[in-house]
Amino acid sequence: MKLLLKIRYDGTSYCGYQAQPDKPSVQRALTDAVSDCFGFPCTVTGCSRTDSGVHALGFCAAVEPVDPQNRITIPTGRVHRALRRFLPADISVCGEAEVSGDFHPRYSVLRKEYLYRMYDTVYDDPFESSRAWHLKHPVTDEGLTRMNRAAAHMVGHHDFTSFMAAGSKIVDAHRTVYSLNVQRNGNNLDLRVSADGFLYNMVRIITGTLTDCAYGVFEPDDIADIIQAKDRAKAGKTAPPHGLYLSEVWYDREIEWKIF
Amino acid sequence: MKLLLKIRYDGTSYCGYQAQPDKPSVQRALTDAVSDCFGFPCTVTGCSRTDSGVHALGFCAAVEPVDPQNRITIPTGRVHRALRRFLPADISVCGEAEVSGDFHPRYSVLRKEYLYRMYDTVYDDPFESSRAWHLKHPVTDEGLTRMNRAAAHMVGHHDFTSFMAAGSKIVDAHRTVYSLNVQRNGNNLDLRVSADGFLYNMVRIITGTLTDCAYGVFEPDDIADIIQAKDRAKAGKTAPPHGLYLSEVWYDREIEWKIF
After folding, report:
1. What is the value of pTM for the model shown?
2. How many A-B residue pairs are in contact by the CB < 8 A criterion?
3. Strand partners, B6
4. Which three-class secondary structure state does DSSP give residue A20?
5. Cβ A122–B260 below 8 Å, yes or no?
6. Residues 51 to 80 of B: which have CB under 8 A from any A CB?
7. Rounded to whole angstroms, what are the CA distances from B145 to B57, B181, B222, B225?
8. Residue A62 sits in which domain range?
9. Are B165 and B200 a contacting pair, CB within 8 Å?
10. Does A116 lie in the same domain as A94?
Protein backbone atom coordinates (compact mmCIF):
# COMPACT_ATOMS: atom_id res chain seq x y z
CA MET A 1 0.00 0.00 0.00
CA LYS A 2 1.09 3.52 -0.76
CA LEU A 3 -0.22 6.83 0.50
CA LEU A 4 -1.52 9.13 -2.23
CA LEU A 5 -1.82 12.81 -1.38
CA LYS A 6 -3.77 15.44 -3.28
CA ILE A 7 -2.02 18.76 -2.81
CA ARG A 8 -2.56 22.44 -3.57
CA TYR A 9 0.35 24.77 -3.97
CA ASP A 10 1.14 28.34 -4.86
CA GLY A 11 4.14 27.80 -7.14
CA THR A 12 5.43 31.39 -7.00
CA SER A 13 8.43 30.61 -4.79
CA TYR A 14 9.41 27.29 -6.39
CA CYS A 15 11.50 26.20 -9.39
CA GLY A 16 8.59 23.87 -10.17
CA TYR A 17 7.40 20.56 -8.77
CA GLN A 18 10.47 18.50 -9.65
CA ALA A 19 13.46 18.59 -7.26
CA GLN A 20 16.55 20.36 -8.63
CA PRO A 21 19.86 20.79 -6.83
CA ASP A 22 20.11 24.02 -4.81
CA LYS A 23 16.67 25.27 -5.80
CA PRO A 24 13.47 25.26 -3.76
CA SER A 25 11.05 22.74 -5.28
CA VAL A 26 7.64 21.49 -4.23
CA GLN A 27 8.91 17.90 -4.29
CA ARG A 28 11.76 18.78 -1.92
CA ALA A 29 9.45 20.66 0.48
CA LEU A 30 6.97 17.79 0.45
CA THR A 31 9.64 15.11 0.90
CA ASP A 32 11.15 16.98 3.85
CA ALA A 33 7.73 17.49 5.43
CA VAL A 34 6.58 13.85 5.22
CA SER A 35 9.99 12.51 6.32
CA ASP A 36 10.08 14.84 9.34
CA CYS A 37 6.44 14.15 10.18
CA PHE A 38 6.62 10.32 9.91
CA GLY A 39 10.10 10.09 11.46
CA PHE A 40 11.87 8.21 8.64
CA PRO A 41 13.03 9.07 5.09
CA CYS A 42 10.34 8.89 2.41
CA THR A 43 10.26 9.23 -1.35
CA VAL A 44 7.61 11.35 -3.02
CA THR A 45 6.59 10.71 -6.65
CA GLY A 46 4.46 13.27 -8.45
CA CYS A 47 1.84 12.95 -11.21
CA SER A 48 3.55 15.51 -13.44
CA ARG A 49 6.28 18.07 -13.68
CA THR A 50 5.22 21.68 -13.41
CA ASP A 51 7.30 24.69 -14.46
CA SER A 52 8.57 27.42 -12.21
CA GLY A 53 5.71 29.69 -11.09
CA VAL A 54 2.99 27.19 -12.08
CA HIS A 55 0.41 26.37 -9.39
CA ALA A 56 -1.68 23.33 -8.48
CA LEU A 57 -5.17 22.80 -7.11
CA GLY A 58 -5.21 19.00 -7.29
CA PHE A 59 -1.68 17.67 -7.83
CA CYS A 60 -1.27 13.99 -6.87
CA ALA A 61 1.84 12.64 -5.19
CA ALA A 62 2.55 9.15 -3.82
CA VAL A 63 4.51 8.79 -0.58
CA GLU A 64 6.55 5.69 0.38
CA PRO A 65 9.10 4.94 3.06
CA VAL A 66 12.61 4.53 1.58
CA ASP A 67 13.13 1.53 3.87
CA PRO A 68 10.18 -0.88 3.39
CA GLN A 69 10.61 -1.91 7.05
CA ASN A 70 9.17 1.45 8.03
CA ARG A 71 5.42 1.89 8.08
CA ILE A 72 3.27 4.99 8.01
CA THR A 73 1.12 4.60 11.11
CA ILE A 74 -0.96 7.78 10.86
CA PRO A 75 -4.39 6.71 9.58
CA THR A 76 -5.26 7.84 6.05
CA GLY A 77 -7.54 10.84 6.44
CA ARG A 78 -5.51 12.22 9.34
CA VAL A 79 -2.24 12.86 7.52
CA HIS A 80 -3.13 16.39 6.36
CA ARG A 81 -3.56 17.42 9.97
CA ALA A 82 -0.27 15.85 11.09
CA LEU A 83 1.56 17.45 8.15
CA ARG A 84 0.17 20.92 8.79
CA ARG A 85 3.04 22.10 10.96
CA PHE A 86 5.70 20.58 8.69
CA LEU A 87 4.53 22.14 5.44
CA PRO A 88 5.18 25.74 4.36
CA ALA A 89 2.10 28.01 4.02
CA ASP A 90 2.17 27.76 0.22
CA ILE A 91 1.63 23.97 0.12
CA SER A 92 -1.25 22.04 1.66
CA VAL A 93 -2.83 18.59 1.55
CA CYS A 94 -6.50 18.61 0.48
CA GLY A 95 -7.08 14.88 -0.09
CA GLU A 96 -5.68 11.48 0.95
CA ALA A 97 -6.13 7.94 -0.31
CA GLU A 98 -4.55 4.50 -0.06
CA VAL A 99 -3.42 2.95 -3.35
CA SER A 100 -1.98 -0.46 -4.17
CA GLY A 101 1.73 -1.11 -4.66
CA ASP A 102 1.53 -1.23 -8.49
CA PHE A 103 -0.03 2.24 -8.69
CA HIS A 104 2.19 4.92 -10.22
CA PRO A 105 1.03 8.54 -9.85
CA ARG A 106 2.34 9.46 -13.33
CA TYR A 107 1.95 6.29 -15.44
CA SER A 108 -1.55 5.50 -14.14
CA VAL A 109 -2.94 8.89 -15.28
CA LEU A 110 -5.82 8.66 -17.78
CA ARG A 111 -6.68 12.33 -18.01
CA LYS A 112 -5.58 15.66 -16.58
CA GLU A 113 -7.20 19.07 -16.39
CA TYR A 114 -5.47 22.43 -16.32
CA LEU A 115 -6.90 25.83 -15.50
CA TYR A 116 -5.30 28.86 -17.12
CA ARG A 117 -6.43 32.06 -15.42
CA MET A 118 -6.27 35.50 -17.05
CA TYR A 119 -7.65 38.89 -16.00
CA ASP A 120 -8.34 41.93 -18.11
CA THR A 121 -8.70 45.03 -15.98
CA VAL A 122 -6.80 48.03 -17.35
CA TYR A 123 -5.03 48.42 -14.00
CA ASP A 124 -2.58 45.87 -12.61
CA ASP A 125 -4.27 43.87 -9.87
CA PRO A 126 -1.95 43.24 -6.90
CA PHE A 127 -4.12 40.28 -5.87
CA GLU A 128 -3.68 38.60 -9.25
CA SER A 129 -0.10 39.55 -10.14
CA SER A 130 1.45 36.12 -9.45
CA ARG A 131 -1.74 34.11 -10.04
CA ALA A 132 -3.20 35.17 -13.38
CA TRP A 133 -1.95 36.56 -16.71
CA HIS A 134 -2.77 40.23 -17.13
CA LEU A 135 -4.31 40.90 -20.56
CA LYS A 136 -3.82 44.64 -20.93
CA HIS A 137 -6.66 44.95 -23.46
CA PRO A 138 -10.11 44.01 -22.17
CA VAL A 139 -11.69 40.99 -23.87
CA THR A 140 -15.13 41.87 -25.27
CA ASP A 141 -18.07 39.45 -25.33
CA GLU A 142 -17.37 38.98 -29.02
CA GLY A 143 -13.69 38.28 -28.25
CA LEU A 144 -14.73 35.62 -25.75
CA THR A 145 -17.04 34.04 -28.32
CA ARG A 146 -14.14 34.00 -30.79
CA MET A 147 -11.92 32.27 -28.22
CA ASN A 148 -14.50 29.55 -27.68
CA ARG A 149 -15.08 29.09 -31.43
CA ALA A 150 -11.33 28.68 -31.88
CA ALA A 151 -11.15 26.31 -28.90
CA ALA A 152 -13.73 24.01 -30.50
CA HIS A 153 -11.25 23.29 -33.31
CA MET A 154 -8.74 21.92 -30.81
CA VAL A 155 -11.07 19.43 -29.14
CA GLY A 156 -10.51 15.86 -30.36
CA HIS A 157 -7.56 13.70 -31.37
CA HIS A 158 -4.91 15.75 -33.20
CA ASP A 159 -1.20 16.03 -33.77
CA PHE A 160 -0.42 19.04 -31.54
CA THR A 161 3.12 19.70 -32.83
CA SER A 162 2.16 23.35 -33.49
CA PHE A 163 1.30 23.68 -29.78
CA MET A 164 4.49 22.14 -28.41
CA ALA A 165 7.57 24.12 -27.34
CA ALA A 166 10.09 24.16 -30.22
CA GLY A 167 12.92 21.71 -29.56
CA SER A 168 10.85 19.22 -27.55
CA LYS A 169 12.03 15.65 -28.14
CA ILE A 170 8.57 14.04 -28.23
CA VAL A 171 8.24 11.58 -31.14
CA ASP A 172 4.46 11.33 -31.22
CA ALA A 173 2.63 14.60 -30.61
CA HIS A 174 -0.86 13.15 -30.95
CA ARG A 175 -3.06 13.92 -27.98
CA THR A 176 -6.79 13.80 -27.32
CA VAL A 177 -8.28 17.01 -25.95
CA TYR A 178 -11.56 16.09 -24.25
CA SER A 179 -12.75 19.58 -23.39
CA LEU A 180 -11.54 23.16 -23.79
CA ASN A 181 -13.43 26.34 -23.02
CA VAL A 182 -13.01 29.84 -21.66
CA GLN A 183 -15.44 31.40 -19.18
CA ARG A 184 -15.60 34.89 -17.73
CA ASN A 185 -15.86 35.21 -13.93
CA GLY A 186 -15.93 38.93 -13.15
CA ASN A 187 -12.55 40.28 -14.26
CA ASN A 188 -11.14 36.76 -14.67
CA LEU A 189 -11.12 34.69 -17.82
CA ASP A 190 -10.74 31.03 -16.91
CA LEU A 191 -9.59 28.59 -19.57
CA ARG A 192 -10.10 24.93 -18.67
CA VAL A 193 -8.66 22.14 -20.76
CA SER A 194 -8.66 18.40 -20.18
CA ALA A 195 -6.74 15.84 -22.25
CA ASP A 196 -5.18 12.39 -22.06
CA GLY A 197 -1.80 14.11 -21.92
CA PHE A 198 -0.11 17.41 -22.57
CA LEU A 199 3.01 18.35 -24.54
CA TYR A 200 5.58 20.72 -23.14
CA ASN A 201 4.04 24.24 -22.90
CA MET A 202 0.89 22.99 -24.67
CA VAL A 203 -1.61 24.76 -22.39
CA ARG A 204 0.39 27.97 -22.43
CA ILE A 205 0.64 27.98 -26.26
CA ILE A 206 -3.08 27.16 -26.59
CA THR A 207 -3.84 30.08 -24.24
CA GLY A 208 -1.61 32.52 -26.13
CA THR A 209 -3.16 31.45 -29.42
CA LEU A 210 -6.73 31.81 -28.14
CA THR A 211 -6.04 35.34 -26.85
CA ASP A 212 -4.70 36.16 -30.33
CA CYS A 213 -8.07 34.97 -31.64
CA ALA A 214 -9.86 37.23 -29.12
CA TYR A 215 -8.01 40.30 -30.45
CA GLY A 216 -8.35 39.44 -34.14
CA VAL A 217 -4.71 38.43 -34.80
CA PHE A 218 -6.12 35.05 -35.91
CA GLU A 219 -9.58 34.09 -37.08
CA PRO A 220 -11.12 31.22 -35.07
CA ASP A 221 -11.20 29.06 -38.20
CA ASP A 222 -7.44 29.54 -38.70
CA ILE A 223 -6.92 26.99 -35.92
CA ALA A 224 -7.59 24.06 -38.26
CA ASP A 225 -4.73 25.24 -40.51
CA ILE A 226 -2.44 25.90 -37.54
CA ILE A 227 -2.97 22.33 -36.29
CA GLN A 228 -2.47 20.98 -39.83
CA ALA A 229 0.83 22.86 -40.26
CA LYS A 230 2.57 20.94 -37.42
CA ASP A 231 4.78 23.98 -37.00
CA ARG A 232 5.22 25.80 -33.70
CA ALA A 233 5.86 29.05 -35.56
CA LYS A 234 2.29 29.08 -36.92
CA ALA A 235 0.64 29.21 -33.48
CA GLY A 236 0.48 32.20 -31.14
CA LYS A 237 2.72 33.24 -28.26
CA THR A 238 3.36 31.19 -25.12
CA ALA A 239 1.35 32.59 -22.18
CA PRO A 240 3.43 33.10 -19.00
CA PRO A 241 3.62 30.32 -16.38
CA HIS A 242 2.03 32.17 -13.46
CA GLY A 243 -1.56 31.84 -14.78
CA LEU A 244 -1.35 28.05 -15.02
CA TYR A 245 -2.82 25.59 -12.47
CA LEU A 246 -2.81 21.79 -12.62
CA SER A 247 -6.39 21.40 -11.44
CA GLU A 248 -7.34 17.73 -11.61
CA VAL A 249 -6.00 14.26 -12.40
CA TRP A 250 -8.05 11.16 -13.23
CA TYR A 251 -6.61 7.66 -12.91
CA ASP A 252 -7.11 4.27 -14.57
CA ARG A 253 -8.75 3.00 -11.41
CA GLU A 254 -11.13 4.22 -8.75
CA ILE A 255 -9.32 6.17 -6.02
CA GLU A 256 -11.15 6.33 -2.69
CA TRP A 257 -10.32 9.90 -1.83
CA LYS A 258 -10.88 11.22 1.61
CA ILE A 259 -11.52 14.81 0.57
CA PHE A 260 -11.88 17.54 3.14
CA MET B 1 -6.57 71.11 -7.42
CA LYS B 2 -5.32 67.88 -5.94
CA LEU B 3 -4.93 64.49 -7.49
CA LEU B 4 -6.96 61.76 -5.77
CA LEU B 5 -5.90 58.16 -6.39
CA LYS B 6 -7.94 55.05 -5.70
CA ILE B 7 -5.54 52.24 -4.89
CA ARG B 8 -5.57 48.49 -4.29
CA TYR B 9 -2.92 46.86 -2.18
CA ASP B 10 -1.99 43.50 -0.77
CA GLY B 11 -0.96 44.54 2.74
CA THR B 12 0.96 41.35 3.58
CA SER B 13 4.42 42.94 3.35
CA TYR B 14 3.57 46.26 4.99
CA CYS B 15 3.37 47.60 8.54
CA GLY B 16 0.09 49.17 7.44
CA TYR B 17 -0.84 52.21 5.39
CA GLN B 18 0.68 54.84 7.67
CA ALA B 19 4.41 55.58 7.33
CA GLN B 20 6.53 54.48 10.30
CA PRO B 21 10.28 54.92 10.68
CA ASP B 22 12.33 51.97 9.36
CA LYS B 23 9.29 49.92 8.36
CA PRO B 24 7.84 49.34 4.89
CA SER B 25 4.49 51.14 4.65
CA VAL B 26 2.06 51.65 1.80
CA GLN B 27 2.24 55.44 2.32
CA ARG B 28 6.03 55.38 1.97
CA ALA B 29 5.94 53.20 -1.16
CA LEU B 30 3.28 55.43 -2.71
CA THR B 31 5.08 58.67 -1.79
CA ASP B 32 8.34 57.38 -3.28
CA ALA B 33 6.57 56.23 -6.45
CA VAL B 34 4.73 59.50 -7.16
CA SER B 35 7.76 61.64 -6.28
CA ASP B 36 10.02 59.59 -8.58
CA CYS B 37 7.42 59.51 -11.32
CA PHE B 38 6.56 63.25 -11.26
CA GLY B 39 10.15 64.35 -10.65
CA PHE B 40 9.60 66.38 -7.45
CA PRO B 41 8.77 65.58 -3.82
CA CYS B 42 5.08 64.96 -3.11
CA THR B 43 3.01 64.38 0.01
CA VAL B 44 0.44 61.60 0.08
CA THR B 45 -2.53 61.75 2.48
CA GLY B 46 -4.68 58.65 2.98
CA CYS B 47 -8.37 58.19 3.79
CA SER B 48 -7.67 55.95 6.76
CA ARG B 49 -5.03 54.06 8.66
CA THR B 50 -4.93 50.33 8.12
CA ASP B 51 -3.16 47.80 10.34
CA SER B 52 -0.27 45.57 9.37
CA GLY B 53 -1.45 42.81 7.01
CA VAL B 54 -4.74 44.56 6.17
CA HIS B 55 -5.52 44.94 2.45
CA ALA B 56 -7.36 47.50 0.33
CA LEU B 57 -9.54 47.32 -2.77
CA GLY B 58 -10.52 50.99 -2.90
CA PHE B 59 -8.27 53.04 -0.63
CA CYS B 60 -8.23 56.78 -1.45
CA ALA B 61 -5.10 58.91 -1.22
CA ALA B 62 -4.56 62.56 -2.22
CA VAL B 63 -1.27 63.56 -3.83
CA GLU B 64 0.19 67.08 -3.72
CA PRO B 65 3.58 68.58 -4.59
CA VAL B 66 5.46 69.67 -1.45
CA ASP B 67 6.48 72.86 -3.26
CA PRO B 68 3.32 74.53 -4.66
CA GLN B 69 5.47 75.85 -7.53
CA ASN B 70 5.60 72.31 -8.90
CA ARG B 71 2.71 71.06 -10.99
CA ILE B 72 1.63 67.55 -11.91
CA THR B 73 1.55 67.66 -15.70
CA ILE B 74 0.44 64.07 -16.42
CA PRO B 75 -3.27 64.28 -17.33
CA THR B 76 -5.66 62.73 -14.81
CA GLY B 77 -6.62 59.34 -16.18
CA ARG B 78 -3.07 58.63 -17.35
CA VAL B 79 -1.32 58.64 -14.00
CA HIS B 80 -1.89 54.93 -13.28
CA ARG B 81 0.01 54.05 -16.43
CA ALA B 82 2.92 56.40 -15.67
CA LEU B 83 3.10 55.07 -12.10
CA ARG B 84 3.12 51.42 -13.17
CA ARG B 85 6.89 51.04 -13.29
CA PHE B 86 7.44 52.98 -10.04
CA LEU B 87 5.03 50.97 -7.88
CA PRO B 88 5.77 47.55 -6.37
CA ALA B 89 3.62 44.64 -7.66
CA ASP B 90 1.53 44.64 -4.47
CA ILE B 91 0.18 48.20 -4.93
CA SER B 92 -1.71 49.53 -7.95
CA VAL B 93 -3.81 52.53 -8.97
CA CYS B 94 -7.35 51.62 -10.11
CA GLY B 95 -8.96 55.08 -10.21
CA GLU B 96 -8.01 58.75 -10.55
CA ALA B 97 -9.86 62.01 -9.99
CA GLU B 98 -9.22 65.72 -9.57
CA VAL B 99 -10.48 67.26 -6.33
CA SER B 100 -10.55 70.84 -5.07
CA GLY B 101 -7.97 72.28 -2.68
CA ASP B 102 -10.28 72.10 0.37
CA PHE B 103 -10.87 68.35 -0.07
CA HIS B 104 -9.34 66.15 2.61
CA PRO B 105 -9.25 62.40 1.92
CA ARG B 106 -9.92 61.55 5.59
CA TYR B 107 -12.10 64.41 6.91
CA SER B 108 -14.37 64.49 3.86
CA VAL B 109 -15.37 60.81 4.27
CA LEU B 110 -19.12 60.20 4.74
CA ARG B 111 -19.10 56.43 4.72
CA LYS B 112 -16.69 53.53 4.36
CA GLU B 113 -17.13 49.86 3.55
CA TYR B 114 -14.95 46.99 4.68
CA LEU B 115 -14.89 43.42 3.45
CA TYR B 116 -13.81 40.72 5.90
CA ARG B 117 -13.07 37.46 4.09
CA MET B 118 -13.08 34.04 5.77
CA TYR B 119 -12.85 30.52 4.38
CA ASP B 120 -13.90 27.26 5.97
CA THR B 121 -12.29 24.30 4.20
CA VAL B 122 -10.86 21.72 6.58
CA TYR B 123 -7.50 21.96 4.81
CA ASP B 124 -5.34 25.09 4.82
CA ASP B 125 -5.64 26.84 1.47
CA PRO B 126 -2.27 28.18 0.25
CA PHE B 127 -4.11 30.64 -2.02
CA GLU B 128 -5.99 32.14 0.93
CA SER B 129 -3.41 31.97 3.71
CA SER B 130 -2.54 35.70 3.75
CA ARG B 131 -5.87 36.90 2.36
CA ALA B 132 -8.65 35.30 4.40
CA TRP B 133 -9.18 34.01 7.94
CA HIS B 134 -9.25 30.22 8.10
CA LEU B 135 -12.23 29.02 10.15
CA LYS B 136 -11.20 25.46 10.99
CA HIS B 137 -14.81 24.35 11.55
CA PRO B 138 -17.10 24.57 8.51
CA VAL B 139 -19.98 27.04 8.85
CA THR B 140 -23.31 25.33 8.18
CA ASP B 141 -26.24 27.02 6.44
CA GLU B 142 -27.81 27.40 9.87
CA GLY B 143 -24.59 28.95 11.19
CA LEU B 144 -24.63 31.47 8.34
CA THR B 145 -28.27 32.32 9.11
CA ARG B 146 -27.29 32.83 12.76
CA MET B 147 -24.49 35.19 11.72
CA ASN B 148 -26.89 37.30 9.66
CA ARG B 149 -29.51 37.37 12.42
CA ALA B 150 -26.84 38.56 14.84
CA ALA B 151 -25.58 41.10 12.28
CA ALA B 152 -29.04 42.66 12.02
CA HIS B 153 -28.77 43.73 15.70
CA MET B 154 -25.69 45.79 14.90
CA VAL B 155 -27.19 47.80 12.04
CA GLY B 156 -28.22 51.31 13.12
CA HIS B 157 -26.90 54.00 15.44
CA HIS B 158 -25.31 52.48 18.55
CA ASP B 159 -22.58 53.00 21.11
CA PHE B 160 -20.06 50.40 19.88
CA THR B 161 -17.78 50.48 22.95
CA SER B 162 -18.10 46.67 23.22
CA PHE B 163 -16.65 46.39 19.70
CA MET B 164 -13.68 48.68 20.22
CA ALA B 165 -10.17 47.54 21.17
CA ALA B 166 -9.74 47.89 24.95
CA GLY B 167 -7.65 50.93 25.80
CA SER B 168 -8.76 53.04 22.81
CA LYS B 169 -8.92 56.74 23.67
CA ILE B 170 -12.13 57.50 21.72
CA VAL B 171 -14.54 59.63 23.80
CA ASP B 172 -17.69 59.03 21.77
CA ALA B 173 -18.08 55.47 20.48
CA HIS B 174 -21.40 56.09 18.73
CA ARG B 175 -21.34 55.02 15.10
CA THR B 176 -24.01 54.35 12.50
CA VAL B 177 -23.74 51.00 10.75
CA TYR B 178 -25.64 51.25 7.45
CA SER B 179 -25.33 47.65 6.35
CA LEU B 180 -23.79 44.43 7.60
CA ASN B 181 -24.16 40.96 6.15
CA VAL B 182 -22.29 37.73 5.50
CA GLN B 183 -22.54 35.83 2.21
CA ARG B 184 -21.09 32.51 1.15
CA ASN B 185 -19.15 32.38 -2.13
CA GLY B 186 -17.91 28.81 -2.56
CA ASN B 187 -15.51 28.18 0.31
CA ASN B 188 -15.39 31.89 1.20
CA LEU B 189 -17.57 33.70 3.69
CA ASP B 190 -17.57 37.41 2.88
CA LEU B 191 -18.67 39.85 5.56
CA ARG B 192 -19.42 43.36 4.27
CA VAL B 193 -20.04 46.26 6.60
CA SER B 194 -20.55 49.94 5.85
CA ALA B 195 -20.72 52.72 8.44
CA ASP B 196 -20.14 56.44 8.92
CA GLY B 197 -16.97 55.55 10.79
CA PHE B 198 -15.22 52.66 12.49
CA LEU B 199 -13.60 52.32 15.91
CA TYR B 200 -10.22 50.66 16.34
CA ASN B 201 -10.55 46.93 15.53
CA MET B 202 -14.33 47.31 15.18
CA VAL B 203 -14.68 45.18 12.03
CA ARG B 204 -12.38 42.50 13.38
CA ILE B 205 -14.28 42.30 16.71
CA ILE B 206 -17.63 42.24 14.87
CA THR B 207 -16.30 39.40 12.72
CA GLY B 208 -14.99 37.40 15.67
CA THR B 209 -18.30 37.86 17.50
CA LEU B 210 -20.38 36.80 14.49
CA THR B 211 -18.32 33.62 14.05
CA ASP B 212 -18.98 32.89 17.73
CA CYS B 213 -22.68 33.19 16.88
CA ALA B 214 -22.23 30.75 13.96
CA TYR B 215 -20.80 28.12 16.29
CA GLY B 216 -23.29 28.64 19.12
CA VAL B 217 -20.97 30.38 21.60
CA PHE B 218 -23.46 33.27 21.51
CA GLU B 219 -27.10 33.36 20.52
CA PRO B 220 -27.86 35.94 17.79
CA ASP B 221 -30.15 37.82 20.18
CA ASP B 222 -27.29 38.15 22.70
CA ILE B 223 -25.90 40.92 20.48
CA ALA B 224 -28.39 43.46 21.87
CA ASP B 225 -27.07 42.81 25.40
CA ILE B 226 -23.45 42.88 24.25
CA ILE B 227 -23.98 46.31 22.67
CA GLN B 228 -25.84 47.50 25.80
CA ALA B 229 -22.99 46.38 28.08
CA LYS B 230 -20.48 48.83 26.54
CA ASP B 231 -17.78 46.42 27.64
CA ARG B 232 -15.20 44.96 25.26
CA ALA B 233 -14.98 41.81 27.41
CA LYS B 234 -18.60 40.89 26.57
CA ALA B 235 -17.99 40.62 22.80
CA GLY B 236 -16.14 37.85 20.99
CA LYS B 237 -12.54 37.52 19.89
CA THR B 238 -10.74 39.86 17.48
CA ALA B 239 -10.42 38.25 14.05
CA PRO B 240 -6.88 38.42 12.58
CA PRO B 241 -5.90 41.35 10.31
CA HIS B 242 -5.17 39.40 7.13
CA GLY B 243 -8.85 38.82 6.24
CA LEU B 244 -9.67 42.55 6.28
CA TYR B 245 -10.00 44.77 3.18
CA LEU B 246 -10.92 48.46 3.04
CA SER B 247 -13.22 48.12 0.05
CA GLU B 248 -14.90 51.46 -0.59
CA VAL B 249 -15.04 55.07 0.56
CA TRP B 250 -17.84 57.58 -0.09
CA TYR B 251 -17.29 61.34 0.18
CA ASP B 252 -19.36 64.42 1.05
CA ARG B 253 -19.19 65.49 -2.59
CA GLU B 254 -19.36 63.93 -6.03
CA ILE B 255 -15.96 62.63 -7.16
CA GLU B 256 -15.58 62.29 -10.91
CA TRP B 257 -13.63 59.06 -10.93
CA LYS B 258 -11.88 57.87 -13.99
CA ILE B 259 -12.17 54.17 -13.24
CA PHE B 260 -10.42 51.61 -15.36
Report:
1. 0.93
2. 60
3. B60, B95
4. strand
5. yes
6. 55, 80
7. 27, 10, 15, 19
8. 2-107
9. yes
10. no
